Amino acid sequence: MRLEYTEKQKAFRAEIREWLAANVPQNSLQSFDTPEGFEQHRQWESKLFSGRWSAVTWPKDVGGRGTDLIEWLIFEEEYWRSGAPLRVNQNGIFLLAPTLMEYGTAEQKQRFLPRMAAGEDIWAQGWSEPGAGSDMAAIRSRAVRNGDHYVINGQKTWSTRAVWADWLFGLFRSDPDSTRHHGLTFVLMPLNTPGITIRPIKQLNGLPGFAEIFFDDVKVPVENRLGAEGAGWSIAMATAGFERGLMLRSPARFQQTARNLVKLYNAHRESADTDPSIRDAVVKAYMDAEAYTLATYRTASRLAKGGQIGAEASTNKIFWSELDVLMHETAMRILGPLGELMPDAPAAQGLSQWLDGFLFSLAGPIYAGTNEIQRNIIAERMLGLPRA
């Protein structure tokens, strides 16, 4: 593959690099799994929006820059290289927004997208239920039509960002006699609607990164439905494609982790080299991050020529999630007992981000559809193997 940038792309890179150098906070923000950190990250989203950097691929009339996917990849490379904060509104900007642009009405786009880009509305997902995790077709929460609104009852769980988010998007069963992927409807709702109860779920680090959400006769206007009633499955699959494919996890994220891992290895080389397999793992992590980057550029180039992402999104998801685990497991091996210290421990020496990253990486093979499910998709839809 021959990777070359146009003069326009080089100028775009220089522009974002200059803006980030002038605007990235000098001090790290608190975790967005705390109320203070959540608001700090919301303000950062607003700052990005002021420079029209919060959603660069979006059309200009809803707050974006109208860039193509190659420019988005360039933006992501500069963003991660600069050490800028994590994106608290990634569920909205990278997952819901592309779905809205494809299935939403003109009124819905103008209503939701500018506020999303500005960080005024932070979005949470409403997919999983106690009996419907990777198998979303088993969803039981109901949305019963009653005139100009739906009455929603049921429960969602493992809802990312839901503790302090403003809005939720999710799937609900609108046809009580339907089964599996039939009769599901995609609904958007504010989380302060009467009848909604949110219970935080603590992560391994003790912070509430997820939540259970209970719905008791919650009334949601029909105008908050995305797409046609009963067409929620196909719409949700489009969203899942964005999640597993390019948008949610850009290769720049893993390139930066790989570069940081190389620095960590060099800083602890004497002890790390007592186990030669550690060096091999560092080299593999770096090579895999670069390979994923090149593969993503190839995919973006194909999409620019009218191609599509199909079942191969599942291969992307498996690759980046297992790469993330490999990199953080290797870092923990390099650090040894030092890597297990919490951030407030005096001996942590500012290295606790590796523990935080390691704990989060373990979720990668689970969210966006477990890797076991993704392997089934690859077997059936790409390799043509019979259903197990």
Number of domains: 3
Shape: globular
Which bin fits the share of residues in helices? 40-55%
User: Which CATH class of the largest domain?
Assistant: Mainly Alpha
The CATH architecture name of the largest domain reads: Up-down Bundle
CATH fold name of the largest domain, please? Butyryl-CoA Dehydrogenase, subunit A, domain 3
Total number of strands: 8
Compute the CA-based radius of gyration: 21 Å
Poorly predicted segments: none
Give the end-to-end Cα distance, rounded to a whole number of Å. Answer: 36 Å
What spatial order of strands do you see in the largest sheet? Answer: 1-4-5-8
Estimated structural class: alpha+beta
The percent range for strand residues is 5-15%
Mean pLDDT: 89
Tally of alpha and pi helices: 12
Order of helices and strands: HHHHHEEEEEEEEHHHHHHH
Question: What does the largest sheet look like?
Answer: 4 strands, mixed
CATH homolog superfamily of the largest domain = Butyryl-CoA Dehydrogenase, subunit A, domain 3
Can you give a write-up of this model?
- With 388 residues, this protein is an alpha+beta fold.
- The protein folds into three domains: 82 residues, Butyryl-Coa Dehydrogenase, subunit A, domain 1, CATH 1.10.540; 108 residues, Butyryl-CoA Dehydrogenase, subunit A, domain 2 (Beta Barrel); 134 residues, Butyryl-CoA Dehydrogenase, subunit A, domain 3.
- The protein has twelve helices and eight strands.
- Helix 7 packs antiparallel against helix 9.
- The radius of gyration is 21 Å and the shape is globular.
- The two termini are 36 Å apart.
- The mean pLDDT is 89.
